[in-house]
Amino acid sequence: MRPFARGLRSAVLASTALSMLAFAPAAFAQDAADEGANASGGGEEIVVTARRTEERLETVPVSVSAFSERALDRIQASDTTGLQGAVPNLNVVQGRGSSNATNIYIRGIGQPDALQTFDPAVGVYVDDVYYSRIRGTQLDLLDLERVEVLRGPQGTLYGKNTIGGALKVVTRKPGQTFRGGVSAAYGSYDQFEIKASASGPVSDTLAAGFAVMRAKRDGYVEDAVLDRDYNDKDTVAARGALAFTPSADFRLDVSLDYTRDDASLTVGQPLNSLTYLIGGGTALALPTNPDPKDYDFTGLTTPSLPNSTKLRHWGASAAAAWNVTDDLELKSITAYRRLVTKDYVDIDATELEMGDVFVGVWQKQFSQELQLNYTGERLQAVGGLYYLKEDIASHQEAYADDLIGPLLGNPTFLRTIDDTLTTKSYAAYANASFAVTDALRISAGLRYTDEKKDYWRTTSTFSTSPLLTSVTPYVFARKQSWDDWSPMASIDYRFTDNLMFYARAAKGFKSGGFNGRANSAAESTAYAPEKVWSYEAGFKGSVADIARFSIAVFHNDYKDFQARVSGIDSDPNTGLPVPVLSVLNAGKLQIRGAELELALTPATGLLLDTQIGYLDAEYKEFDDARFPDGSRAFQRPAFAPKWTMRFGAQYEADLGGSGFLTVGGQTRYRSTTALAVDNTYIVGTVGTTTEIEGLFQRGYWLHDARIVWEDEARKFSLGLYGQNLSDKRYKTDGQDFSSIGSIRTVYYGAPRTFTVRAGVKF
């Protein structure tokens, strides 16, 4: 039997077993109102702001998944990476070699590199404030109203860098009703977590609230030689908010947030023997194909490399809403953010000093958005102006004393990089929906973006070999500007109040930029923006209080995608081999797929749900001079598995005066996934069609379960949560730096863990 068939059979059996458990005799009760979108088949109205105005989920002509705080607990998500599997065709994992970055792909479109010159391809928003970097986006889900995941390009309403989609976090706002809560958790690897929040009125016109969190956990990866752990967690987060409502027509929300993360190194596992840069030869023999069934997380890093990654991330925002008339609302969103990271990364994941780096980043951004919303009898419209200014500076050090080799006498090697990047982005947009009839609605939108980037970089090399030492620093400075028009058009038809068909066409783009890894004039290139045209059609609906569903099919034409590739060239002065790290506008992809989200409540207290994504992604062009035919179109696109599936079930038993008991579980599947753009071997300077086996994660299943007790008033709760119950060892990310000592490293997801969580609401 094929592995997929075996896995599918196990998923069906697991889901059936959970369903049988759910039908056990008892009295039933389910808080459908709190279960959230894609979590309840009940008739509760679910409101989202996917189109920058409040709408029922079932009437939005966009592929969007939404999760309330209760639904996030049901899928056992404690941070943004916990959405993995719960949204079709979504890849969201911790970034490679970083405790504070997130690798997000939607429908095969994303950007995994945390280097400050690379822009994300999936926009992350917190209360409609855009986060410019993928660093700082592995957000702990603290006191939230909901999370929304928009699939497909969102360029018209959300702008640049939403070419794959958008992830929106909506925090809970303070109001005139007092509310609060405290929760504490303890689990595997000495996990400890405490969260607290409270909000309520200060006066008739002012409300205030706060939320705080402290989370710690020992590392999954142990270094017996150096007696230290890696891949741990050490986070403090806090948020404060004020809501001022002097009248029924005006509201001002002010918030301030702060996150401190002091984790150890995030360490992967090397895939092959490392080699000297000059003269070849093996520097250290390593297993070439680790046993995927062995969950012995052991790692080694360079002893002199500090076991430290640090993040300080904070921001302030003010959102004002004024009802000019009964039909017209004016909004203003002003935000300022700062991000500081000081990360040490052992890219080669060995005790050798070959791919050891320090990356310090200082980033700040200011944004201002003015928005006008009109809601009439048949016309609904939103338009606005947007401005963003971002300044980034970085200092990088690459330590590689073991890289060069004995032919030059094993010289020391240190390369330093300092760079700055300033981005100014201006945009204007409009989107309107018109109800032709009570059932038929047409929508159209357009956004214009003008962006300017100013980049400066200097590189110096220090070595005991004069052949490698920089006589003068290499300096690169360049300015570039781009502009873009992003249109959208859709049509939807409501057969009944509970069944809608829609079709949508939209364009998205991702900003151009400069190669932040350049070390020579040949590498110092600008690359153009990415663009995608997406065509989508789907059905959304519900059946009484029994079922809620969403079905979508889509076709994406994606061009000028930005590919970071590595190679080797010869130094024109010395003739010595030098690594080349290039960024190419490599060509075109065609991405087609289908998605299903289904939730059933066939009996009171019983919830069955599934999310299934199918993706057919292929390069139509991939221009790379190292390949004999000039194309790498045969390769698998990265982070684009053909299948993503989740099957879940939960049963809530009413224990009368003793409260409620919920038993739930889920099983998640991902088919074969390429973990890096460079995933075939390069021999010398010529590419091959032979896949690098270790840079793929073959199809796998993960199984989770929970049992939670709540008192009769749902004020107190106590739960036991288990994740990755089969202790599956699986890869989540990888990097290929073959041109630098043959470095290829992969990173793994968490092993089996158990957590006990207790909470009280008041």
TrEMBL record:
<dbReference type="Pfam" id="PF00593">
    <property type="entry name" value="TonB_dep_Rec_b-barrel"/>
</dbReference>
<keyword id="KW-0472">Membrane</keyword>
<keyword id="KW-0406">Ion transport</keyword>
<keyword id="KW-0732">Signal</keyword>
<keyword id="KW-1134">Transmembrane beta strand</keyword>
<keyword id="KW-0813">Transport</keyword>
<keyword id="KW-0998">Cell outer membrane</keyword>
<dbReference type="InterPro" id="IPR012910">
    <property type="entry name" value="Plug_dom"/>
</dbReference>
<feature type="domain" description="TonB-dependent receptor plug">
    <location>
        <begin position="57"/>
        <end position="166"/>
    </location>
</feature>
<dbReference type="InterPro" id="IPR039426">
    <property type="entry name" value="TonB-dep_rcpt-like"/>
</dbReference>
<keyword id="KW-0798">TonB box</keyword>
<dbReference type="InterPro" id="IPR000531">
    <property type="entry name" value="Beta-barrel_TonB"/>
</dbReference>
<comment type="similarity">
    <text>Belongs to the TonB-dependent receptor family.</text>
</comment>
<keyword id="KW-0410">Iron transport</keyword>
<dbReference type="GO" id="GO:0006826">
    <property type="term" value="P:iron ion transport"/>
</dbReference>
<keyword id="KW-0408">Iron</keyword>
<keyword id="KW-0675">Receptor</keyword>
<dbReference type="GO" id="GO:0009279">
    <property type="term" value="C:cell outer membrane"/>
</dbReference>
<dbReference type="InterPro" id="IPR036942">
    <property type="entry name" value="Beta-barrel_TonB_sf"/>
</dbReference>
<protein>
    <submittedName>
        <fullName>TonB-dependent receptor</fullName>
    </submittedName>
</protein>
<feature type="domain" description="TonB-dependent receptor-like beta-barrel">
    <location>
        <begin position="246"/>
        <end position="725"/>
    </location>
</feature>
<feature type="signal peptide">
    <location>
        <begin position="1"/>
        <end position="29"/>
    </location>
</feature>
<dbReference type="Pfam" id="PF07715">
    <property type="entry name" value="Plug"/>
</dbReference>
<keyword id="KW-0812">Transmembrane</keyword>
